[in-house]
Amino acid sequence: MGATTPDSVVTTARLGTVLVVTVNNPPVNALSVAVRQGLAAAMAQAQADDAVAGVMLVGAGKAFIAGADIREFGKPAMPPSLPEVCRSIEDCSKPVVAVLHGAALGGGLEVALSAHYRLAIQNSSGGAKLGLPEVTLGLLPGSGGTQRAPRLMGVKAATELMLSGQHLSAKAALAAGLVDKLVEGDDAQAAGLAYVNELLAQNAPVRRTRDIAIPDPAAALAELEMLKADTARKTRGLFSPLKIIECVQAAVQLPFDEGMALERSLFLQCIDSPQRAGLIHAFFAEREAAKVPEARAAAPRPVASIAIIGGGTMGAGITVSALDAGYPVIMVERDAESIARGRANVEKVYAGLVAKGRMTEEAKAAVMARYTGSTSYDDLANVDLVIEAVFEDLEVKKAVFKELDRVCKPGAVLATNTSYLDIDAIAAATSRPQDVIGLHFFSPANIMKLLEIVVPAKVSAGVVATAFELARKLKKLPVRAGVCDGFIGNRILAVYRQAADYLMEDGASPYEIDAAVRDFGFAMGPFQVTDLAGGDIGWATRKRRAAARKPGDPKARYVEVADRICERGWFGQKTGRGFYLYPEGARVGQPDPEILAIVDAERAKKGITPRSFTADEIMRRYMAAMVNEGANVVHEGIALRPLDVDVTLISGYGFPRFRGGPMKWADMEGLPRLLADIEAFAKEDPLFWKPSPLLVKLVQEGKNFDSLNHSA
Known about the structure:
48% of the residues lie in helices and 12% in strands. By secondary structure, it is an alpha/beta fold. Among the domains are: 10-272, 2-enoyl-CoA Hydratase, Chain A, domain 1 (Alpha-Beta Complex), CATH 3.90.226.10; 303-483, NAD(P)-binding Rossmann-like Domain (Rossmann fold). The chain has an 8-stranded mixed beta sheet, sandwiched between helices. A 6-stranded mixed beta sheet has the order 1-2-3-4-6-9, sandwiched between helices. A 3-stranded mixed beta sheet has the order 5-7-8. Strand 1 (10-15) and strand 2 form a beta hairpin. The longest helix is centred in the last third of the chain and has 21 residues, at 615-635. The radius of gyration is 29 Å and the shape is globular.
């Protein structure tokens, strides 16, 4: 019956005239070399056995095949290659049916596209999800995906699927033409067997995807040209998206085998691109960031209910995140009017989803039924975890924590959502500092993925583990940070933002700086970000800190341009002008000659003769400041590893993902060059440009930042 041993990752069994081929490579049936070998052997077995009339491919466990085996990334390729395996499936002279449940992604979907028929399972746990997400790793589908998907679902739809990296549900895949039939249920094998036998009873032919003709090639190529222009604009600087379009053009214009050859050649180009190294690093770094010593040392505490203190923009966003994760939430505000406003802030998010057709009124009502507003701390007696999200003032926060200390049960986790304040001081306001932790959400909190988990000196390991478990349930990317002014992200931001101000005062216009930063891959430059956030926010912070600046102190180089702008009441988008002009509520700003006049006046006041900077010179300073402070953050133990800095900057600060994060970028540029830049800049400004001791040490030892990523 079966030609493979039961412990093999691919097993075969003949049920009647059907050879059932089961991929069993937990946890997600990834396409390891053993799986590829097993599939090739199973197809050879089916071809050679006259008693086999049809073949069924199915995955054991929760997935069909979730894609490539990430454990093999970066290792030499072992035969057979996946294109060869797919070819052996498609060339089988007996009908082959792929039964899709759970993930059928990347190479897994390419296997399914090589089969002659596809059945998708839909069930209570969601059922099949199909996609070709290689673009997110800087790659393209390299085993026929770019050639077969357009033949099945149409050129435009297939290209958009590959460019987005998104998944299709079983129902959407049926509508798109990727699958032939949809079945409700939990038993994939039984449903698949019934479908294969149904096809055999109908004498269904072998139906090779490669033989399907693409209708109206001229119209398809015109659609691709439009997509190409749109993609070039949206994915500026990215390598693989335009290569995907090139492959699909080949599917339209060339014979199948020539299209496959081009796909393979462009796939190998993607593998060699530095962007792929950056994207792969980001992929692994996000998984590594959740591995922290406390989570290994202690179990998380159970969290069944959450309270949020404060119903402003941040408090409401955190509330939505908790409600979306299924938690009952109590929101505490100081009076009935504030609670009504807080509830309205939460409801507004769900009303927006209803308006877009992404949520029903019934579903919204069911979610809001888990929300309770209160003006009394006494209602928090039984909650498991409290997140404070009030005004960013240490005394205000300490007063809140004294109240929480009074009312919360022993063992409740008490979290503060501060952006830069001293959490050790907040914890000291309670009798239980072991229960106090920082949870720094990013705004809007229900959308932004990053969550800095800030670990004060006296917190217990179990509370840290609880915070990481909460992040997982809220679908956030957690990064462990130590206590300092600004933690990881805001501390580094303050330094590279300062570098941008110095560049502006020394001769680059804010518009030149923003353009250079955008060309590097950020969505926005630093001055655009200021206008979006509101210039008044930073101004208030600068005024609070002004007392610490001593007149005449050479350390206090202070660029006053932003203050001059704020003094005029120009706070950015919300007031119609800031560094840019926003006529009639425009979202995209226009350069403002009056700003350049303000900058010129400030330079003249300080006796600075402006000089010009190229985009490369701007970015060398901007990035050197960012990486040098990142190195200090690692050196001081604020970040466990360089990869934690990378995840923070990518997920919370718009750093281009394809560059892997600032520390990965520095490794790819070469640390000796970076150190030489900093030493050269220090000749002009030795107080700002101080090489990080860690950077100096790594260069002396001939090591890079990545050498420190495996030590936590």
